Amino acid sequence: MKNYKYIFVLVCIIAFNACQPNSNTRNGKLKVVTTTGMIYDAVINIAGDSVDAQALMGPGVDPHLYKATQGDLKKLQEANLIFYNGLHLEGKMGEVFEKLGRIKPVRAITENIPPSNFRASELYPGTYDPHIWFDVSLWKEAVKNIQKYLNEVDEKNKAYYDQNATNYLRQLDSLHTAVSQSIAQIPEKQRLLITAHDAFGYFGDAYGIEVNGLQGISTLSEPGLKDVADLVNLIVENKIKAVFIETSVSKKAINAVVEGCKQKGHQVAIGGSLYSDAMGPFGQFEGTYIGMVHTNVETIVNALK
């Protein structure tokens, strides 16, 4: 009930603001608002400084739990174009975006990608894993959607966007190859990636590494004692050397797994911190999509090989 109240109030505020006079461009630039940093980075790579782009969710922010702030409402109201991930990643904002879409362009970057490309949820029939950015080749399809929607809203810059997108997609091809080669350095018996929540399923499917997350694809529910015990047994039986925490997820549950392994006589290390639902700080290498992926892969390979 609280969530419905939140959505109702938020939509009322946005609808009211939409009726007020405002300047929808700054210095003639298209105003673009994104939810996650990954989407923001794709927009910047395609549109450069021809747009005024902002991300609602910064480093360390969990999109599954995120609620829009008053400052976010102003950004959403002033935006010419809004991008969000979709597939229920922004669980508490989905209905807000649906209603906003009635008054301005609001696009899920996963639109028009065939459902057969998505990982189906085992717990919730008809829903899909939203963490598509961990398969670089699949993320390319989302980037193409961003290119398409920018062209639709800002036709005068279409040639510029197309050229930048072509160059960026080539970089993503190189990244995909580099990730495959790096993961191949890990002996096959040691290719087991254990993380705080099940965000790396696409990564595992694309690059040949088994993935086990303590929590499910969403962080809305806490792992139970059985979840911890099952993961401890898996680690001990396979003599796994390292598990990983995530920058946007609490360390508490993974620490419980490490302690459980210790009680069974197996020492497992924290292999490092991975960027999962959020990138690193903007302006740093890890604060770009390519930098985030490279950093994650380096951390994983160094800990498991």
Descriptive account of the structure:
With 305 residues, the protein is α/β, with parallel strands linked by helices. The chain has two domains: 2-178, Rossmann fold; 188-304, 3-Layer(aba) Sandwich (Rossmann fold). It contains ten helices and nine strands. The chain has helices at residues 2-18, 37-47, 70-78, 94-100, 136-153, 158-183, 201-207, 225-238, 252-263, 289-304; strands spanning 25-26, 29-34, 51-55, 81-84, 106-108, 192-197, 210-215, 242-246, 269-274. Strands 1, 2, 3, 4 and 5 form a five-stranded mixed β-sheet that branches. It has a two-stranded parallel sheet with strand order 6-7. It is globular, with a radius of gyration of 20 Å. The N and C termini lie far apart (48 Å).
